[in-house]
Amino acid sequence: MDLFDHHRDRQIEAQAPLAARLRPRTLDEFVGQDAVVGPGRLLRRAIQADQLSSLIFYGPPGTGKTTLARIIANTTSAHFIAINAVLAGVKDIREAIAQAQDLRGQYERRTILFIDEVHRFNKAQQDALLPWVENGTVILIGATTENPFFEVNKALVSRSRVFQLKSLEAEDLRRVVHQALTDRERGYGHKSVQMDKAALDHLVNVANGDARALLNALELAVETTPPNDRGTIPITLAVAEDSIQQRAVLYDKEGDAHFDTISAFIKSVRGSDPDAALYWLARMVYAGENPRYIFRRLVILASEDIGLGDPQAVTVVTSCAAAFDRVGMPEGRYPLAQATLYLATAPKSNSVMAFFDALAAVETEQQQDVPNPLRDPSRDKEGFGHGQGYLYPHAYRDHWVAQQYLPQGLQGQVFYQPSDQGYEASIRIQVAQQREAQLAALVEGGAGPGEALTYSPEDPARDRWLQRTLTQTGERLAELRDRLFSALNLQRHQVVLDLNARSGLLTWEAVRQVPEGGVYGRVDTAQDAAALQEQATGLPELVRPQILHIPLLELASTLAQREPALRFDALIGRNVLGALAEKAAALGSLAPLLPRHGTLALAEVVPRHTQRLSALLPETQLDGKWRDRWQSAETALYTDDANPRFNWQSPDLVALIEAAGFTVDWTETLQTSEIWVGKGLCDRWFNVANPTSYRNQLAAQLPASDLDAIEKLIRRELQNQTVPWQTTLLFLTAQKSI
Predict the structure, then answer these.
(1) Residues 566-585: pLDDT tens digits?
(2) CATH fold for the domain made of 33-164
(3) Could you tell me which residues are beta bridge partners of residue 677?
(4) Which pLDDT belongs to residue 208?
(5) Which residue in 521, 551, 524, 554 sits closest to 535, CA to CA?
């Protein structure tokens, strides 16, 4: 680049639109999309670690797709090449690949190829990329406003992580305006701009989640408004309305917005919600959708979803369509709205779907001959007796007679099931009665002879490794794990903390469920941390869980120092609080780790209501007085208010969680399972050196002679046996409410 090129680029940059000048350069400047690049998210970690794989950013205009690519360009050590699919062709792809090959061969330097509007490439152009993405010559980053699963080569998608970006929230747009008005170098910080609250609200509202549209309107407002006597540029509501007068509705008649909106419209009509139906109809009309297309979908719905619930529905909607053809727009909106409201408020029945059951029978059943009474008698009545035995319904009372019309192999088959809605409710009994009569006719021989806002490519090595961890857990623990995760309903991009990751049971499942998010696991001992980290070496570095060897009560303060912006979408844990003396303090320290509406899911064994060893032996084997002393000692142990392990019940723990600012849904379950009483388990029960062993905890109530007798009896009667074991489990799901 010579001096003139440099001067030209600086001049272009200085004269660029405000939206281009203010494009964020780092992740810290980036506004919105916390679900994708927020603290702890996979993409943020990958960018910061410069360990990117091929990516596709998908979302509406103005949400930051190109900006994210530019941020990656500013932070990566790889060579960055950017092309626009609207302007580029196969020649440009070949030049980029050749450049990437030279850099890789001479300097072992990676190349990131960014393709804006990647869906604009045709199939041949996308195919030209595939081998170079496959062999790692380039790391592809694609940006598209269209659904990549439909518009991008499936082979490219399968080798990329897809991140969906959403329209920006109102607060995000306000931050964008604040940046523009305070940035002295790239924005209007060097000017005195006074914006009324009503003007800001209007700009944010009409921008409709599009930061680019917002900045373009702000630029127009500032540049076209003269300063007042004090040198201040006043941006009033009137100025804002002139700068951005009409909301831009995202609606491409060939793309996702089109199909998603018509889908929402049809589902609202089917769901008998006239308000939602009118809203989605207005969205389509406002965006310029062809009303004839809408009428076509309504005619289909009138048969598919209403059918005989209201047989007049088809007549009404076709009449409205005819009326529209007569009057056109804009008056044609009246019959369009009338048809929508009629169908939305009509009784619903999808009984016409019975046709497809019949079609399936035709496709799967062996073809049957037409029953002889039903055949055409005009040609073969004399020779083959076609039509003989047919009963003419009009010759009978009520113009109906019981006879079989189905082929012999399908007689008695039911396809049509009348609903209890509208018109069909009135014929339901009649249809049932006639069927019963036809079946009776069949039994008597009356019939003649007859005939299912982020995607990851599959990683078999990772999946096999995770599967090995699953097979190391028992069926009972797997059920507990599944129950906890079903309560969380996690999304793939979320960040999860396992509060007691000792065995990894919940940690590894979290890795499966949030592949584009992040997983943290807290452990109490260095030994547990080392074991989990050793197991995690089988996973790619970016998806490994972060193992935290931190006491529970110090967790929040430690994380606040390490990653102050980190918040978890969900906290999950098994036996986290049960034996903890300072339960209330622990819950108070955990609450700040969750955002509002964040979720806490716990499974806690309730020791007070779990299995008593004395109950495992038949009463006939125990001396009465000695048995009473043993059971009394167990009762004293399991109800000891001074022991934090036993001094609580489920309602107590629920009350503590509610006091910490959560809304709690909980249930208590008594589980009975079979356990093997091996020598090792007996040794732990009666370990004299362990102050928390069963023997030592009973020592306060029983003399040593009784304890020796109990140990001898259990080892003789239960050791090396399978016994039923009862466990009381508390399952709770809590949502942060403050």
Answers:
(1) 999 999 999 998 888 888 99
(2) Rossmann fold (3.40.50)
(3) 721
(4) 76
(5) 521
Environment class of 281 (CB within 10 Å of its CB; exposed 0-12, middle 13-18, buried 19+): buried
Q: Determine the pLDDT at residue 246.
A: 57
Is 403's pLDDT higher than 70?
A: no
Strands 79-84 and 193-195: unpaired
DSSP for 705-736, please give it.
Answer: HHHHHHHHHHHHHTTTEEEEEEEEEEEEEEEE
Give the closest residue to 542 by CA, choosing from 47, 33, 74. Answer: 47
Confirm if 480 and 574 have CB atoms less than 8 A apart: yes
For residues 655-689, one letter each, b for 16 or more C-beta atoms within 10 angstroms of the residue's C-beta and e for the rest, the string is: ebbeebbbebebebeeeeeeeebeeeebeebbeee
Coil/strand/helix, residue 113: strand
CA atoms of 709 and 619, how far apart (whole Å): 15
CA 637 – CA 694 distance, rounded (Å): 9
Q: Copy the structure tokens of residue 256.
A: 């996702």
- Tell me whether domains 33-164 and 460-606 share a fold: yes
202 closest CA partner among 183, 218, 219, 180: 218
Rounded distance, CA 56 to CA 151, Å?
Answer: 12
How many residues are there in the chain?
Answer: 738
The first and second tokens of residue 90, run together, are 């196969």
What is the per-residue pLDDT across 202-230, written as a single tens digit (0 to 9) for each?
A: 888 888 778 888 888 888 888 888 888 88
Mean pLDDT of 350-363: 73
Residue at token pair 């009473």: 628
Tokens 């959708």: give the residue: 289
- Given strand 79-84, what is the order of strands in its sheet? 79-84, 111-116, 139-144, 55-58, 161-164
Q: What is the mean pLDDT of the chain?
A: 80
Name which of 517, 498, 493 is nearest 508 in CA terms: 498
- β-strands 721-736, 662-677: how paired? antiparallel
Q: Which helix (H) or strand (E) holds 56?
A: strand 55-58
User: Does pTM surpass 0.90?
Assistant: no
CATH number of 460-606: 3.40.50.150
The per-residue b/e assignment along 323-355, b for 16 or more CB within 10 angstroms, e otherwise, is bbeeeeeeebeebbbbbbebbbebbbbbbeeee
Q: Is the pLDDT of residue 448 over 50?
A: no
Q: Which has more pLDDT, 674 or 234?
A: 234
Cβ atoms < 10 Å from Cβ of 282? 14
Query: What per-residue confidence (pLDDT) applies to 523?
Result: 92
Q: Which of 497, 509, 491, 496 is nearest to 454 (CA)?
A: 491
Whole-angstrom distance, CA of residue 267 vs CA of residue 628: 67
Beta-strand relationship, 233-235 and 193-195: parallel
What's the pLDDT at 445?
Answer: 42
For residue 485, give both structure tokens: 């995760």
- Average pLDDT score over residue span 353-358: 73
Question: pLDDT value at position 431?
Answer: 62
Q: At what angle do helices 505-513 and 460-471 cross, to 10 degrees?
A: 150
* pLDDT-based confidence at residue 497 (cuts at 50, 70, 90): very high
Using the Cα atoms of residue 374, residue 378, residue 379 and residue 381 in order, give the sign of their dihedral. Answer: positive
CATH code: domain 256-348 is: 1.20.272.10
DSSP secondary-structure letter at 333? H
User: How far separated are the first and last CA of the chain, in Å rounded?
Assistant: 57
pLDDT at 60 over 60: yes
Q: For domain 353-443, which architecture applies?
A: Orthogonal Bundle (1.10)
The domain segmentation of the chain, as residue ranges, is: 33-164, 256-348, 353-443, 460-606, 610-641+679-719
pLDDT at 17: 84
Instruction: Give all strands (DSSP E) within 579-709, no chain letters.
Output: 599-605, 662-677
Q: Which of 89-93, 309-313, 353-357 has the lowest mean pLDDT?
A: 353-357
